[in-house]
TrEMBL record:
Alphabetical UniProt keywords: Oxidoreductase
Origin superkingdom: Bacteria
Keyword Oxidoreductase attached: yes
Source organism phylogeny: Bacteria, Pseudomonadati, Pseudomonadota, Alphaproteobacteria, Hyphomicrobiales
Gene Ontology terms, MF aspect: flavin adenine dinucleotide binding; monooxygenase activity
Keyword DNA-binding: no
Record protein name field: NAD(P)/FAD-dependent oxidoreductase
Record-linked InterPro entries: Auxin_biosynth/cation_transpt, FAD/NAD-bd_sf
Amino acid sequence: MRRDLEMLGFPAANWPAETTGSDGFPITDVVVVGAGMNGIAAAAALIFKGVRNVRILERNPAGREGPWLTFARMDTLRSPKILPGPALGIPSLTFRAWYEAGFGREAWEALYKIPNAVWARYLGWLQRVLNLPVEHETIVREIAPSAGGLEVRIRTSQGQETLFARRAVLATGRGGAGGDRLPDFVDPALWPDRAAHTNEAIDFEYLRGKSIGILGGGASAWDNAATALEQGAARVDMYVRRSILPQINKGRGSASPGYFYGWSALDDADRWSLFVYLNDAQAPPPHETVRRAMQQDGFNIHLGRPAEAATRQGEKVVVRIHGEEAPQEHDFLIVGTGFNVDAGAIPELGAWSSSVARWRDRYAPPDELQRSDLGDFPYLGSGFELTERHPGQDPDLSRIHLVNHGAALSHGAIASDIPGVNVAAERLSTAVVASLFREDLQVIRRSLEEFDEPELEGTPFFVR
Ligand SMILES: Cc1cc2nc3c(=O)[nH]c(=O)nc-3n(C[C@H](O)[C@H](O)[C@H](O)COP(=O)(O)OP(=O)(O)OC[C@H]3O[C@@H](n4cnc5c(N)ncnc54)[C@H](O)[C@@H]3O)c2cc1C
């Protein structure tokens, strides 16, 4: 791996101008928020290109980045094992190279799909072997504009601190562009002892012997049903709005270089129409997860029975189903309704988030393609940069790049799932390089003029 990097000349020497803040300390060129798959790939791609003044800030301890060891409750990744992972085109950085080196070729041949914990170890290895400057247990609380740059307010075990950066990359994961989706009809007073979202930590030991209601029929709802029953829940009832589950994974059908490279070049109408098509189709739960849940006694699914209220009644959760007189009673409710995307609710931006342009600010779809929730997706620029809702009012927003699922409408699914991660990192790093180069042009030009290494010394043509 080291030889591969050496042969490719990675990482290049640092070239951006060194800038200092009013406190005299160097300003960080790029702060990457999140050390999951997209944060790792983005930071590595920047460092390879000689943008080496980078800090990666991650709220979780080392090894606990991303969903893999917490709320991803499937046994294995849903994707096939042959995906290269965030390898940036370098064979020795691929998941397969790492796995074969550690476990042998036979083990690779025998591997069916990648267990979550193995994938998390691979991502941890990438962080270490690429010497990525990850600062764990560091929470980015807020990012705000500051003269000619960004103020990044962080919290660590040492307390609160402010650092200054020229660019920020929000690689904050699936929930990073709007948080968990919680239907209006679910009473928030059910928390914490009577309900949890699938994306939260759940104490399944506490659910032993209990009756669990689950809202939703997507992959995570099934994963949680299976986990609860495997860990001793007495019964699980899944309430699903649809009367048949989605059958085809159109996401897989669109995971090709054409979509990855071509999507962002489409006009707004085509991007919107494609996204509506994919979003309406939804994805089926993986058959492995379905089988895992169905193997358990106590599993019940209620298709075509949409919940319309979930409230607390004494020690119970009462779920009312549309059109049914008698309510359903459970000891605990798990809400498997996915994530929101809302440009106005990017947590790290606080109130500044309301200045981010959304799709509804830039594009009006025809009536049959109106989807109110999709209108809240951020309308990103060609390098994942946020754009201003009111042009001219918040130019510093373009210093912030959003590399998570919130980018899906603007760029396709390249910052969402594993297959697109390298394309996203390449696009992002190229855009940041170009904008830093433009910003630093005067300094870079001056240092070019001062560059003075004679080539002809020792030949008759040398002139001092
Ligand atoms: C349950 C589940 C299963 C999935 N399975 C698959 C699959 O099989 N195949 C596939 O291709 N895709 C899958 N995905 C989709 C996608 O690959 C994952 O969501 C993946 O984790 C995305 O990587 P990421 O780097 O964007 O986000 P993450 O891996 O979530 O990393 C984001 C990181 O940012 C950190 N962070 C967030 N906010 C802050 C902050 N303010 N300060 C500091 N740190 C912060 C988080 O702690 C986290 O570690 C799955 C997603 C989920 C949720």
